[in-house]
Write a structure and sequence with these properties.
nine-stranded mixed beta sheet; 24% strand; globular; 282 residues; alpha+beta; three-stranded antiparallel beta sheet; 9 helices
Length: 282
């Protein structure tokens, strides 16, 4: 989670950790601009109540009270909750859920991606959910335009779905490939990694759907976020907010390296020599 509730009326949340690196750069490193993040501030007692209930489960009765703080799968499992904030629909889901629970976050993301008709923009720190790549594959075949900017450090990891969208497979250090790995037969051109100062990361977890909706929160697009971690996933139905996030997407896109970067190519070549095509993990 990355959220604050102030005076039972204001919610601040997004992708940013409350650290120097998360907000404005590393102390003592003039080249650092800080991790690429965003924060949203909502003035809404109704939305604040939703977040307070989540906080209360984790807090329990506090010092001297019952030892009933609950985290992870010990929490009461909730469905997506909808709140109107000044006429804007905000859908909220807190993770985690079991894999058998239809309400888990990857299913919510899949539903939102499937609803796109024209365009999906994504800026992601971690993207390791094959389920979502499969949805994007179907959307590409329908003619939906896809753009993705991903963190350079994560993008070239063996379990990164960024590689799947680029149409390549990278065996891990044991020469194993994840079970069910299914890269695109023809890699997308709309995949990029931004050029960042050394040590800085693209830490966003957002998508813009058809210039009308924004997916945001602390929720990385990964099985761990859906089934293990305490995370926040929001869908904000606001063309105005979508414009703000599209401007950020355009900023990152303008300076991004597109396609398979030299860093990725080096890893792929080394592992090809060492492992061949690799062996599927079982």
């Amino acid at each position: 989670h990355k959220f604050l509730v102030i005076d039972q009326t204001t919610v601040i949340t997004g992708s940013a950790n409350l650290t120097s690196s998360g907000l404005h750069g590393d102390a003592g490193r003039p080249s650092s601009r800080g991790n690429v993040n965003h924060l949203l501030r909502f003035h809404s007692p109704e939305l604040a109540l939703v977040f307070r209930k989540e906080f209360t489960q984790m807090w329990g009765d506090g010092p001297g009270g019952e030892q009933d703080s609950r985290f992870g799968l010990q929490k009461t499992k909730g469905e997506t909750q909808t709140v109107q904030v000044d006429g804007i629909r905000v859908d909220v889901l807190f993770s985690p859920h079991s894999k058998r629970d239809r309400n888990h976050g990857l299913n919510l993301l899949a539903d939102q991606l499937e609803a796109a008709r024209e365009r999906i923009d994504m800026a992601l720190f971690v993207f390791s959910a094959q389920q979502l790549t499969n949805v994007l594959r179907d959307q590409i075949e329908r003619g939906v335009e896809i753009r993705l900017v991903a963190d350079p450090g994560f993008a070239s990891r063996p379990f990164s779905e960024v590689l799947d969208l680029l149409g390549v497979t990278l065996p891990d250090h044991s020469c194993k490939v994840e079970a069910g790995n299914h890269p695109l037969q023809q890699g997308l051109k709309g995949i990029g990694t931004p050029r960042l100062a050394r040590g800085d990361k693209l830490h966003h977890k957002f998508a813009v759907i058809d210039n009308r909706k924004v997916i945001t929160g602390s929720f990385n697009w990964s099985p761990s976020a859906a089934h293990t971690n305490d995370e926040t996933l929001l869908v904000v139905h606001s063309p105005q907010l979508a414009q703000h996030f599209t401007r950020e997407m355009d900023r990152l896109w303008d300076g991004a390296e597109l396609g398979i970067t030299a860093r990725m190519r080096g890893k792929l070549n080394r592992q090809k020599i060492r492992c061949g095509d690799g062996v599927e993990r079982r």
